[in-house]
Design goal:
Layout (H helix, E strand, L loop, with lengths): L8 H20 L19 H13 L4 H5 L2 H13 L3 H13 L5 H16 L11 H10 L9 H21 L1 H14 L14
Helix pairs in contact: 1-4, 1-9, 2-9, 4-5, 5-6, 5-8
Length: about 200
């Protein structure tokens, strides 16, 4: 993660530019770049009604963090933003927990629980999330008898961190504000059914 952005000026600026570009792509491309993985690639129709629904979706992201997380477009945009702050592991962990809770096989539940722990929770994990020692040890204990709820405490704390820290900065970012302004203009102009101009980067 980029603990001190000043230490990575070129990289951070490039990621910030990439984030703005990605948000602009929402308005005139059918999908995001594939390098964001499963959270960053979507397809949508070209009908004006769907464009209008997307505009409402974008404007809804600022209403609550829940609305952002319930939107596949919002998750992809927020993920792109977190990459500019080198903290995308928080959202990736939250998403992994959401998928984990859908597993019904006890065998798969146990194996996936250990994979998530090794990837996000244990010390020196490749995508280690910022949680306290007590929560880390509680989660480790829960793995001894993995259930669908064994990551709930860690997931909740990670979510709270994103909501209080990263989410307000996402809403204040020039890229999101530009996107919201363009979608507002699009939704206010029924006759404008053509593709919107891309954001300038």
């Amino acid at each position: 993660m980029c603990r001190t952005l000043a230490a990575f000026p070129t990289t951070c600026l490039e990621r910030a530019k990439e984030f703005k570009t990605r948000l602009g792509i929402f308005l005139h491309k059918s999908e995001l770049g594939s390098d964001t993985g499963s959270v960053g690639k979507f397809e949508w129709g070209s009908k004006h009604s769907k464009e209008r629904n997307f505009s409402e979706d974008v404007l809804g992201w600022k209403e609550s963090f829940d609305l952002l997380l319930s939107s596949k477009h919002g998750v992809a945009a927020f993920h792109a933003f977190l990459k500019t702050e080198f903290s995308e592991e928080n959202l990736e962990f939250w998403l992994a927990c959401e998928e984990y809770k859908k597993i019904r096989s006890a065998t798969k539940l146990a194996s996936q629980a250990h994979r998530i722990f090794e990837e996000f929770i244990c010390s020196e994990a490749p995508k280690e999330v910022n949680i306290d020692h007590e929560t880390r040890e509680l989660t480790r204990t829960n793995l001894q008898a993995a259930t669908a709820t064994c990551f709930d405490v860690a997931q909740g704390k990670t979510r709270t961190l994103m909501e209080k820290d990263s989410y307000p900065r996402f809403l204040k970012s020039p890229a999101y504000r530009d996107l919201a302004a363009q979608t507002s203009a699009t939704s206010a102009s029924p006759s404008n059914c053509g593709p919107a101009e891309p954001l300038h980067t």
